[in-house]
Each structure stands twice: as structure tokens, then as C-alpha cells.
Write a structure and sequence with these properties.
flat, 6 helices, about 45% helix, alpha+beta
Length: about 190
Amino acid sequence: MGYIDRKINTYYNLYSTRMMMVLSDNTNLEHELNRLLIFMKNLDDEDREMVLRHLSEAHRLMSMGYIGKKSFERRKKSNPNRKTAGLSVSSLSEDERQRLTDELLSETPDRYSVEKVQKHFDRLMGDRKKIRVEESEIRTRDDAMMFAASIIYSGTEGFHYEVELGDEIVETEVARIRNVTVKRREQ
């Protein structure tokens, strides 16, 4: 029974360590806390109070995830030195290379191209001349990325909108975004 108990204890210790490493993004918190406590031991009361105040302000839980069976499964390592890893360029003609390139580009369309961003704002604005981030409903990552793409494309030829950056930050459902104003360009 002692042997089985030791094995179970070892398993639980490994499981606990794995959980700690996954939840702390591969940071050994025990080691970091020990270093912090040793550092704080040599401080006077005022400095220690200041360090603790700054630590409490800096600590914020960003995300919490749970571990499933997938994180413990052993994955078969891929062999990067396989002979069939890619196409031999010398065996392809120029026409075949062009065809494969065109297929690759058509299979992965640019979700945030100038045309798609422009259509998004045409649909979003309707007959209005301008729209601000705080006025629009940004519910998905794509909505936020459209505003980011409008900042990138602002001032380029072919994009019929210009962007003015605001000073305040707006909290949306998916992101914290600078309150920008997207205006129709006079044509």
C-alpha cells in the first residue's frame, strides 16, 4: 500500500504543478513570490507599504481557463525533415507555379481589404456623413478590426473615408478602442 500511496502522491504533485504552470502562463509563481518576500524583508515599513500598494494596483486577473483532457494527451511530434514536406520548384513549370499561386490567394481572401472595409462603412453609415466608435455597436472582433483597418487605409487612394483620432478610450464588448471618427471624404 505504501508504494501505491507514493505513486498517487507523486501524480497529484505533478498534476498540481501542471495546473499551476498552465494557469500562470509558465511562470513559477512560488519562486517569484519567494524572491519578492525576501526583497521586502529588508525594506523599512514605509517602503514595504508602498511596494504592497503598487502590487495590489498592478495585480489584475486577465483570464482564467480550465484544463481538459486534450492538454494531457501526448501528441506525436512531426518530422520537419520529411522529403514530401513541400513542392520541388524545379519540377514545376511557370504555368503550374502561377496556377498554384492563384489558387492559394483565392482560397485565403483578405478579410480586411480596402473594398471590404469600404463596403462595411457604406452599410454601417447609410446616409450619414460620419460615425464615431461610441455611436456604433462593436460586438465582434471583425467589427473592431474594420475600425482598425479604416485607420490604416485612411488617406490612401481608393478609400473614400478619412479617420480622425479622438483622445478618449471607449470600452466595447470585445475591446478597448480609441474613439475614432470615420468621415466620408468629399469627392
